[in-house]
Amino acid sequence: MLMGRIKTLNLEGMQMKKLFVLVMCVVLVVTFFSCSKEEKNTSTYEIAMITTSQSSSIDDGAYNQSTWEGLREYAEENGLTYKYYEPREDSTDARLEQIDQAIQSGASVIACCGQEFEPVIYTAQEKYGDKTFLLIDGYPTDDKGNQKTGTNAIGVKFAENELGYLAGYAAVEDGYRTLGFIGDGAAASMKNYGYGFIQGCNDAAEDIGVTVDVNYSYKKDGDTAAKIQKKAETWYEEGTEVIFACGNEVFDSVKAEADIAGAKVIGCGYDRNATSKNVLTSTVKECGIAVQAELAAFYNGVFTGGKNLVLGIAEDAVGLALKTSRFEAFEQESYDALCQSLKSGELKIASSEDAQKVSGLIQKKQLNFVYVTMN
User: Fold this and answer.
1) Residue limits of the ABC transporter substrate-binding protein PnrA-like domain (predicted)?
2) Looking at 127, 158, 189, which one is the last position of a domain?
């Protein structure tokens, strides 16, 4: 009887061991195939995005995030593999290293955003002639200012003059009569913002039947954040109601003073309305729309490299962050009418190519309802 029980226990033990071995085999097989499938799916990525840096990446709430979200949406809708790469530091060499890594990982098309990538793509387009490069908000340019866009690349910028126009028109129609503009330097992009702003202020004033004043300034080399904030403080104290602040450092300085003074500031580039209750509105560059358009051209076989584009209202690539704005009188209907006039070509906004100085712009466009003071 005891021997029978021992044999039964031994048989049960053997069966348990066999069952355990069988289960482990199944687990190993499943794990093997799972790993193989994952490796197969993620070992190569045909679309790559290089972010500005580790600190300015796909969650920056600005240009990188907009570009990444547009790229990701296009890739997922079309069953394409994609990945972003973060440079180890804020430098051209570090960004070029990530392009090397992306291409080693199978990238056929590489997207990036911002002026920081102008010298990067200038070099990469020559090094990798069989790859395609999409530079959003910039044109391939070397450190000496030489601009060249290869046949395997495209540069996309945005109509800052249209953005400035919308901001100026909206602010005046909303009731502001003493306004300001501060640009981060006097580069063409900053002039375009400012020139558009003046024209928008003038046209709104003419339509309403009033005149407006605009204080106008560019940040100079060596100007500190404190100096910019002091300028904003002086303007606000002297009656300026809202300042259009273009450039990250300029915006931060002006916003800081607007918060102290309880005055208004207009942001530039992307939706900054959540940064302060004193942000009246923001001008927005739709980097995601731009990158999607170029990806579609690439995968549809109609990509035409060697070009530099300027996208504006007509392409739905620029606009005001109207949903989060704090306007009291300027409404959607007025905004839509302005956009339609721009799209149809009925309304044409002068840019830095049309005038070297503000005085020349005022004379050429006969802006009689805005008085500009250069500071």
Assistant:
1) 54-333
2) 158
- How far apart, in Å, are the Cα atoms of 19 and each of 5, 9, 305? 21, 15, 62
**Phi, psi (degrees; rounded to nearest 5) at 350:** -65, 155
Q: Which amino acid is at 129?
A: G
- In order of 185, 209, 218, 226, the CA distances from 222 in angstroms are 11, 40, 12, 11
What are 136's two structure tokens? 């959003």
How many structural domains is the chain composed of? 2
pLDDT (tens, 9 = 90+) of the chain, 375 residues, equals 434 433 443 444 444 444 444 444 443 433 333 332 223 345 799 999 999 988 889 988 889 999 999 999 999 999 999 999 999 999 999 999 999 999 999 999 999 999 999 999 999 999 999 999 999 999 999 999 999 999 999 999 999 999 999 999 999 999 999 999 999 999 999 999 999 999 999 999 999 999 999 999 999 999 999 999 999 999 999 999 999 999 999 999 999 999 999 999 999 999 999 999 999 999 999 999 999 999 999 999 999 999 999 999 999 999 999 999 999 999 999 999 999 999 999 999 999 999 999 999 999 999 999 999 998
Phi, psi of 185 (to 5 degrees): 90, 175
| Residue 310 in domain | no
| CA 264 vs CA 179, 282, 318, 358: distances in Å | 10, 11, 22, 24
* Burial annotation 258-280 (CB, 10 A radius, 16+ → b, else e): beebebbbbbbbbbbbebeebbb
Yes or no: say if 201 and 263 are a contact pair by the CB < 8 Å rule: no
Residue 27 lies in a domain: no
Domain span at residue 151 reads: 47-158
How many Cβ atoms from other residues are within 10 Å of residue 58's Cβ?
16
Question: Residue 343: how many CB atoms within 10 A of its CB?
Answer: 14
* β-strand pairing of 318-320 with 264-267: unpaired
Q: At 139, which CATH number?
A: 3.40.50.2300
Q: How many angstroms separate the CA atoms of 244 and 266, rounded? A: 5
Helix (H) or strand (E) holding 307: strand 307-311
Token digits of residue 243: 């300042």
